[in-house]
Specification:
By secondary structure, this protein is an alpha/beta fold. Among the domains are: about 90 residues, 2-Layer Sandwich (Gyrase A, domain 2), CATH 3.30.1360.70; about 45 residues, no CATH class; about 130 residues, Isoleucyl-tRNA Synthetase, Domain 1 (Orthogonal Bundle). The protein is built from 20 helices and 14 strands. The chain binds one RNA strand through helix 2, helix 6, strand 8, strand 9 and helix 12.
Length: about 550
Amino acid sequence: MTSMFAERISDALREAAAELGAAVPSVRLDRPRDTSHGDLASNIALTLAKRLGRPPREIANDLRDRLNGLEGVERIEVAGPGFLNFFVEAAVVGGTLHTILASRDDYGRSDEGAGRRIMVEFVSANPTGPLHLGHGRQAALGDAIAALLEWSGWQVHREFYFNDAGAQIARLAESVWARYQQLLGHDTPVAENGYQGEYVSEIAAAFRDTVGGVHEGDHGPEATEAMRTFAVGMLRDEQKRDLAAFRVRFDEYYPETRLYSEGRVDDTIRALDETGLTYQEGGAAWLRTSRFGDQKDRVMVKSDGSPTYFLPDVAYHMGKWERGFHEVVNVQGADHHSTVDRVRAGLQALGRPRGYPEYLLHQMVTVVRGGEEVRFSKRAGSYTTLAELVSEVGADVARYFFLMRRPEAHLTFDLDLALDQSDRNPVYKVQYAHARLCSLLELARTQFGDAAEAVASADTSLLGTAAEREVINQLAEFPAFLARATSARAPHLICDYLEKTAGLVNSWYQTGHPTRDPSARALVADPALRAARLALAGAARIVLHNGLAVLGLTAPERMER
RNA sequence: GUCCCCGUAGCUCAGAUGGAUAGAGCGACUGCCUCCUAAGCAGUAGGCCCCAGGUUCGAGUCCUGGCGGGGACGCCA
């Protein structure tokens, strides 16, 4: 049924409660797990029992009597300890289908965000190596959250921040330098704390192919700088390619060096000094971040005169605010959680609000292959890359795997399951249900010539079986699930929803199997009933399609084995 | 030592603001192709929801204290 209809019921409930002497701000209606408990249920009588000093069942009976004759409601039952169960007329239930069919690709969208701007910053990998599976989880998560926000009416900016200078990059340049000299026949081992991955040699080879041997034996600053620029450019290109293959795009890539070249870091030091919250100790400049909930004060400028990472971080986020992003979601690995309080404290010192920016910290990814854990270490260069994974299982499966778990739960990525048993993958179940509905609708066109108009004007009150009602009620909940997944920053709720929906659709579909009940099939001879069932099929297809779209997955019209 | 996350079926995990008989997938077992696609469906087995207190009509969910696992606590990034 439409949400408007559910709202009417909850309004009526609220009025009735007020008449009993208990004003409540809003009444929540649930869809009962058990279909014998009706289409909608309320526990309001239970929650009011204490306030009214009366047994909940008595209150429930009272409320029911006041609600009798509500339009579209077939009957109301009082059940269990005092639940009110609403049984809705078939016409109202079926009416949902017309809402969905009319909204099509927009079904589920809302204007909650009212066009306000919001930034989602995610991945933000440093260009020191190819993206690994941890980045993959973050790419899938950030992109899905961004899409959810767009569906809720926000204007979303996807941003990727990267450190293109600093010690790690210097280390990368040194490693490339060593490999480059090796290619020219010198015995120059890569430093122990350097990057050992094979990709470093590839970069060195490409560099040699580009410039030849002009830097042979040359360890001067120009040589290192040339290799740094070359390596960063090459790795960034590779990361962009990997992300493109994963179907993740960014509106902006923001380099750390820009914070320095635009003077933002110096500005931030000045601004912080002006607050009077900074002090000198041991030759370093400190900020009293402990004033704002950080566990201890932090160094902003080291005794050697160089800034700690904290400073550009604050400068970067001040920049976000100044660019007009007063709502920001930072998607980061949980290993960054110690920086959260610090950065927020710095921003608070500069007058930004307490909770700015919002952080979504996700737990790490453990990779399991052949029953044992695959340790991935950037240093050793022995980790599984996102590109490898995507080329083996495809972007759809990879994205779904990364999204199906709550962000704050540890993710065990079983490569054997993803690679070898992909047939049993939940994503295929959802996509298959979609493809099946597509071919059902196609058959209706070719065999019966059923036009879209016939379906659009179908009498959906003909859909009265338990399986049909259950599917329709499930479809009706899609917008609510989207809203919840958005506000909770929890795309996995959509995975759960899609699997449940696909299951109900498949179940409904199978009841019409020739060996079971041919009269329950969709393509029956009776044109009116056929149109009604095709309306259900069409609406279900739309919901599956839209749900997959929000998660960044394709919705194939057919599945080939 | 302090902080964050997790602990639910054999395995991997869902269970929003406390509500009716705790769910799914995988694995095990039993059925179902007379074809709108069986990558599916129906069913069976499998649970002291880590432990102990507390809050209340009611706790997997909230509070306190433990136990176990992971992560973070730099003038690293």
